[in-house]
Amino acid sequence: MAGRIEDYALIGDMQTAALVCRDGSVDWLCLPRFDSHAIFAGLLGTEDHGFWRVGPVYPEGTTPPPADRRRYVGDSLILESEWDTPRGTVRITDFMPPRDGAPQLVRIVEGVSGRVPMRSALRMRFSYGRVVPWVHKVDARTVAVAGPDSVWLDTDADTYGEHLTTYSDFTVSAGERFAFTISWQPSHKEQPPLPDPHGSLEATADFWREWVAHCTYHGPYREAVVRSLITLKALTYAPTGGIVAAPTTSLPEEIGGVRNWDYRYTWLRDAAITLSSLLRTGYREEARAWREWLLRAVAGDPENLQIMYGIAGERELGETELDWLPGYEDSQPVRIGNGAAHQLQLDVYGEVTEALHLAHMTGLARNDYASLLQLKLIRYLETHWDQPDEGIWEVRGPRRHFVHSKVMAWVAVDRTIKLIESGDADGPLERWRELRDEIHRDVCEKGYDAERNTFTQSYGSQELDASLLLIPQMGFLPPDDKRVIGTIEAIQRELSTEDGFVLRYPTAGEDAGVDGLEGDEGAFLACSFWLADDLAMIGRVDEARKLFERLLALRNDLGLLAEEWDARLQRQVGNFPQAFSHVPLIDTALRLTASGAYGG
């Protein structure tokens, strides 16, 4: 059985990523890209679906022991795990070198004290655990081949095959090292170059040291902010600048439930807010690369803007269920692809325009097509903003007039007006000022419940929605507006869990809720960060700081967050690690630092 979600560490090379459990098992890895088929899919099934465990030998019939300690080496994605055994202490260093060539996963075993018997068990299963590859030797190298893919194992330890698994049994003494590297290569090509694991380790450490040096944030939450920034960088597909929402699929929002989705794609919303956080912390090159990705993905067709694309800008992301995988802790179905790609979500226009506006305001080199795209988006919104849509949460029920969608349409028009006013674009200024006023008036009249003094999820509804917390952050209304304060307090009162974290919206258990789905879910961590932001904005800064620090305490020992927190089970749920959790962490840290609202 896979570990708890928070038991995993992330390593990656800005093209794909692996999850390493506390027991030394790599249970998830897609090669060569984030959205490729997994060769280790044990995370969503069993060991029969692929894994690679390296660790101390343990008695047969028992579970492998977890590491006694683990950490990232400084500000990097280099993972060190240590085991204390009766025979000594051993350290394993796991990393994926940033690359131009073949993707590699490197594991270096080092003796710290004594003499420790070790085992590497490598079970590759291609196509998400469905295909057993042909494993054979080529000279001193081991290669696994299936269809278009080949994975090469190089090690200075002896290997043997048994039970369709490649093993290495060896003993490591203090000061001794054994290295293991797997490299992916198209099966029709020549074998990849021999790896240099120790040289790659040094180069990888240099890469992260130089990258983190660009961070401009030096406040009291620097450790959490830098770890979140590294995580966001790891979720960026370097060749194109696209940013995946998470490196995993189908980690459940409710253990045993059906809310299991594929997040290995680029949501315009998630990527746009990620860009904003990167710009605010000094990472202009990543922002420029994302803007170029956006322009290529949207191309000349903004009227058919998708809410998400593949990491190279692909549009077809058809959703399929993998019925041979039992799912994480029996959470079915396991899905790849995402059927929400062609939904209408009007808020995306606002997020994209806000990101382009921030890039412009922070001095990112002007791109004339970016300004042209922004104008085209508003021309589309002129005739579509008043339509119902599926909204920020991608409901699979009927379309509605979601308040957040209308607010973000207002944001899109407002930021474009500012672009024209700055002299960097031409457009029908007076007409769009009237449009901005019309949208604002419409939301305040139809999306506000005066009796309860709160905005609602959609026009005419009684439900609340945590996305309403973004109203003051987007400048739609000032923080001291009584309607804003009333909405914040209503969400605290009606959408908070017992431990004070925030649900996205009400769900209906065994019945289909507003989102068209059965089942419940955990507290959505981004929404809880939004609440902390709002509390700071309305002057309740001590309360905001305490909520923020309780959110930081939910991170695993390596500083990573999934999408949600299950208050009942007291554990992380949802895809992991999640960009949409780490971005608002950064934003809230910046706001609290600016306000002086931190302890010590």
Automatic annotation (TrEMBL):
Transmembrane segments: none annotated. Its EC number is 3.2.1.28. The keyword Coiled coil does not apply. Its cofactor is phosphate. Pathway: Glycan degradation; trehalose degradation; D-glucose from alpha,alpha-trehalose: step 1/1. Pfam families: Glyco_hydro_15, TREH_N. It is an enzyme of class 3 (hydrolase). Coiled coil: none annotated. Keywords: Carbohydrate metabolism, Glycosidase, Hydrolase. Residues 2-132 form the Trehalase-like N-terminal domain. It catalyses: alpha,alpha-trehalose + H2O = alpha-D-glucose + beta-D-glucose. GO terms for molecular function: alpha,alpha-trehalase activity. GO terms for biological process: trehalose catabolic process. Residues 219-589 form the GH15-like domain. Belongs to the glycosyl hydrolase 15 family. PANTHER family: GLUCAN 1,4-ALPHA-GLUCOSIDASE, TREHALASE. This is Trehalase. It comes from Streptomyces purpureus. The lineage of its organism: Bacteria, Bacillati, Actinomycetota, Actinomycetes, Kitasatosporales.
